[in-house]
Amino acid sequence: MIKLGCGPLRLLFDAKTMVLRLNGKKLVPSFTRTVGEMRSVMLSPHAAIPDSRICYWVYRRVERPTDKKLFNSRHLEYDVTVLAPAFLGPERNKTLGHYHSLASDGIAYPEVYEVLFGQAHFLMQKRAAHASKEVVDVRVVAANEGDKVIIEPGYGHVSINASHEPLVLANLLCTLNESDYSPYLEKRGAAYYEFGSEKFLPNPNYHKVPPLQVLKASSLKHAPKVGKENLYADFLAGPHRYEFLRSPSRYWQA
Fold this sequence. Notes:
Helix content is 9%, strand content 35%. The chain is mainly β. It has a single domain (2-241), classed as Sandwich (Jelly Rolls). The strands form five sheets. Strands 5-6-7-15-10-13 form a six-stranded antiparallel β-sheet. It has a four-stranded antiparallel β-sheet with strand order 1-2-3-4, with no helix packed on it. The longest helix has 7 residues, at 231-237.
């Protein structure tokens, strides 16, 4: 079992069975995504892979009982996602992809991710307008264990397993958000597909695909509120600093 770097949360991961344990107890995923559910966003939807194969597992509200009141008071939740070390035909395993809804200040909710195990590529794309399905900016952020990545307001995102090991991600997100998967389903995926070793193919279902920016998480400038501790511990140490997740207009405030 691998001890994940999210203390004081005692979370263990078995890379062979893909099982998560919290305080020694096996966690039950909130939901999973199978190949059958992912085919409509795959580069090769007719790939010879069983529909029943699980691509990833999502665990909502992975929190200590003593911390739940704090998370609830801030309208935030700490989730964990596990992606299998697999390929969807020629394409790297990934999440389905979604956009976030608008907060009361008229700006889409942001989100903070942290890589707990493995290597991730966060494929983010910004729409021309909130209701548009076309995009004006696309970037891939490469992140290693311990790296944090912010999904800025207005960006949709897909998480990609960039290695041959499992990928375990944690995220902090406002519970008032409603994820919208429909633009990704309509366009049959994100603006780019990743296959092989950091090779990206534009999705022809978009009217115009902007050039892809490839960045490293270590080179990004984080919101001033996000600290250097692991995401769980950092939130406990200063929950007020994460108010921008509930009020996105505060994201740009120093």
